[in-house]
Amino acid sequence: MPAQEATIYWDKLVYDAWELHLAATDKGLVFIGSQGAPLAEAEAWANRRMPGSVLVRDAERLAPYARELTEYFRGERDSFELPSDLRGTPFQQAVWSALREIPYGRTTSYSDIAGAIGKPAAVRAVGSAIGANPVLVHVPCHRVVGKNGALTGFRGGLAMKERLLELEREETSG
Questions:
Q1: List 20, 116, 141, 145, catalytic entry
Q2: Catalytic residue flag (residue 141)
């Protein structure tokens, strides 16, 4: 049976020095792009994860998601309430769920996430699942660091990861 065509609504969030593409279905947020990345990043993701879907720009539909992210960037929000529509394997879903449990302003390691989902030997697979997280910030994969505390890979780039962690440190210390 061929995949059913879905509509993915998108818009570009520009706030302060942040510039991100957001995308959602009728069920919730499906994608947050890397800092400063072109729309092509979202299009490539949609072609891989939701083949046959159509991208339609709709600022009004994305406004609630943009509002929550803007509040986060302002330090007025430490968690997200709007729904997401995450597409992934059961293993990825388990990892993404564990990421949501990391407290704002804190970090954890890949091995801690592997342990949290009951798969302590699956550290590399956890890293792959984290790398596949389609909703940066909303599912806080930026809070995962190397066991020694070093910043490690991040789809949005290490500069974006460092900026997000710094934003959270400022809010929790001030």
A1: 141
A2: yes
